[in-house]
Specification:
- This is DUF3243 domain-containing protein.
- With 84 residues, this protein is an all-alpha fold.
- It has a single domain, classed as Orthogonal Bundle (Cytochrome Bc1 Complex, Chain D, domain 2), CATH 1.10.760.
- It contains 4 helices and no strands.
- α2 crosses α3 and α2 packs across α4.
């Protein structure tokens, strides 16, 4: 089973990667930039596996690049603030 199959598992996976990046000394700007790149890859190359991922893809597709960066930032903030 992939972490993309279940949105809760995806958030836990993302939270662990954000914590790992912070532990390596990456700042939030760099982490958000990586989240943006990951979001762009997922939106363009991976089929959504559940309703939450479908919603995120639809929002991503409708957003400008600035708005996509904000979505990436919000995802990082969501998993960093313990709101998993």
């Amino acid at each position: 089973m992939s972490v993309l199959d279940n949105f809760q598992e995806w958030k836990e996976f993302l939270s662990a990667r954000v914590s790992q990046a912070q532990g390596m000394g990456m700042n939030n700007e760099n982490i958000t930039d990586l989240a943006y790149q990951l979001g762009d890859y997922l939106a363009n190359d991976i089929d959504p596996q559940n309703a939450q991922e479908r919603l995120l893809k639809d929002l991503w597709d409708a957003a400008s690049e600035e708005e996509q960066r904000m979505l990436a930032s919000l995802m990082v903030k969501m998993v960093s603030d313990g709101k998993k």
